[in-house]
């Protein structure tokens, strides 16, 4: 018995020695196979009525939140391309906006009629109802426009990535829907349907994902980032155009920020300035994405939008063996700019686990000086990997040991996060594990704004020394 106690004590001490950084969660989740829900699942149900609109989703339609892009699909015939909408304050006379319709073919698949309609000149901080379809097949939804852009405007973002359409994906979406934190929009860090995991990139799985996610994204905007599962580049079946299903189905307001492509763009929302980058588009010197970001960062006015948030799919810092250092070239290219501009947080996906870093940078390194270890840097962002939505590829459980000094907390579980901006100086961040109660925070921290309140907000003792 004594020998057993000694062995256990040695193992505990050894684990403590191995952990150079923050904490690796000891939570033990059920070992289950992650699989896509069958096509006849109720979450994929087609709405009743002839040619009823389906896969309804919205996104901010301009730079400052006074426009909304409404998108939907009709499968049988083109039907009406109009959106009727009215504010909660004025229900007497609905306004009408006309959209455009696109279709596409992918291998042997032919899409339905995909509608996109931009509603403009909306009032800030107002509830709007909108209706798509006609007659008995018409469907009605609603959304809230954000408050007017300003430095002390509170706003709550949900954060998700790598969702897919498994039973775990459904749990993640349900958990987010029922969260008492009540996200008002979602920062989505890429990898939507995982249709490309099916034979010939079965685009029917784009349709099912659109119906599955409609219950949330028809009511609040999701700010889209493209991931590797949006590429759908498959020359072996004659598909040589990257991002074809995504670009036809999901429109973003990229032209409002002078971007030339829908894969990188920016928006302002309340007190946040959100910059979306593309891990799978060229970003080398003088490429369009490089040039856009070079010109975009100086436009950020922290007196107007104090919170500077960056979204990217492939993480720049990651202590999981899954996709380890895969985005190193992009980090080397852009990290100095993010530190110089005091970005508050970078959200990424790709790695199917959760991890939060301390504020660190590795911008001093060059090929001659050998300073290749990340160092604590209070001008640098916190890096959060949130690719734990629940997709069919399952959890990434193989973490590197010892845990690096820059890693504050990590866990291989499915979930979502909330970034709750209180004012220009403070934001409350929390990560919510699917297995917990809706109000439980499995990880959390207070963010101190890098521009207005740049105090040390490290969450591990070693990092704050």
Automatic annotation (TrEMBL):
<feature type="domain" description="Purple acid phosphatase C-terminal">
    <location>
        <begin position="380"/>
        <end position="439"/>
    </location>
</feature>
<keyword id="KW-0862">Zinc</keyword>
<dbReference type="Pfam" id="PF14008">
    <property type="entry name" value="Metallophos_C"/>
</dbReference>
<dbReference type="GO" id="GO:0003993">
    <property type="term" value="F:acid phosphatase activity"/>
</dbReference>
<dbReference type="Pfam" id="PF16656">
    <property type="entry name" value="Pur_ac_phosph_N"/>
</dbReference>
<dbReference type="InterPro" id="IPR025733">
    <property type="entry name" value="PAPs_C"/>
</dbReference>
<dbReference type="InterPro" id="IPR008963">
    <property type="entry name" value="Purple_acid_Pase-like_N"/>
</dbReference>
<keyword id="KW-0325">Glycoprotein</keyword>
<dbReference type="InterPro" id="IPR004843">
    <property type="entry name" value="Calcineurin-like_PHP"/>
</dbReference>
<dbReference type="InterPro" id="IPR039331">
    <property type="entry name" value="PAPs-like"/>
</dbReference>
<keyword id="KW-0732">Signal</keyword>
<keyword id="KW-0479">Metal-binding</keyword>
<dbReference type="GO" id="GO:0046914">
    <property type="term" value="F:transition metal ion binding"/>
</dbReference>
<keyword id="KW-0378">Hydrolase</keyword>
<protein>
    <recommendedName>
        <fullName>Purple acid phosphatase</fullName>
        <ecNumber>3.1.3.2</ecNumber>
    </recommendedName>
</protein>
<dbReference type="InterPro" id="IPR015914">
    <property type="entry name" value="PAPs_N"/>
</dbReference>
<dbReference type="InterPro" id="IPR041792">
    <property type="entry name" value="MPP_PAP"/>
</dbReference>
<feature type="domain" description="Calcineurin-like phosphoesterase">
    <location>
        <begin position="156"/>
        <end position="354"/>
    </location>
</feature>
<keyword id="KW-0408">Iron</keyword>
<feature type="signal peptide">
    <location>
        <begin position="1"/>
        <end position="21"/>
    </location>
</feature>
<comment type="similarity">
    <text>Belongs to the metallophosphoesterase superfamily. Purple acid phosphatase family.</text>
</comment>
<dbReference type="InterPro" id="IPR029052">
    <property type="entry name" value="Metallo-depent_PP-like"/>
</dbReference>
<feature type="domain" description="Purple acid phosphatase N-terminal">
    <location>
        <begin position="53"/>
        <end position="145"/>
    </location>
</feature>
<dbReference type="Pfam" id="PF00149">
    <property type="entry name" value="Metallophos"/>
</dbReference>
